[in-house]
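Annotated sample (chain length 242).
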Amino acid sequence: MARGDQIYVMRPLMNMDGAYEHHGIDCGDGTVIHYYKGGEVPTITRTSFATFARGNPVYPQPQSIAYLPEIVIQRAESRLGEQKYQLLTNNCEHFATWCKTGRNESPQLLTDGLGYGSLNPFDTRQMLDRAATEGNPVETVTLLTQALNQATITRQQLQSQANQAQAEMASWHRVAQAALKRNREDLARAALARKVNYRRKWEQIQKQLQDVDALQTSLLQNTRKLQQQIAIDPHHLQTTIS
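Output written by the structure step:
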């Protein structure tokens, strides 16, 4: 193990030894940055290696392509003090993998069957199909409002992904520059390839954002039309209540 390595130790769960992997970043000076759970709230903290290990063996987590060690440490240090632990979306492995590779992933969740599937930004289509066949304008407005809320949440998620992809492009560009200064053209090429991949991802997300924006516009227009119809003919509201 060396400075900038992603490392992990097996931790118990409900009296079961070795139930899950606890991940962190080796700082190379006898300390580890990880999601420390020794306080009231899980917090990304720099602790001693011994505190991280708790007397158990520590293993390196190999990654095929990763940031240079100093970049890994910088990324880990940039999140010191964070208290946003979430088992399914932001656990210790998500954090360490993000520091090492830029990917916010937790493979052990997928192994355990707990990981989320890929985001489908158009789950609202099912709501639209129901709304299109719904005879009562009041209930249709409710369905359209639900669809609009889902579209809004989806847009926020996509925008967050777009921002992350843009940040990763900049990070891998810096990695490539640092590698060239060290005359490591192999690492520079690998870093630029990662930058290109994030660029493509960013472009795909931009297209999805445009689609969601169009969907939101359509939902708003249809909702307002139905609301006007209900206002003109309150009988629909009376029959629904009765």
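Annotation: The chain is about 55% helix and 15% strand.
Annotation: Strands lie at 6-13, 16-26, 31-36, 43-48, 58-60.
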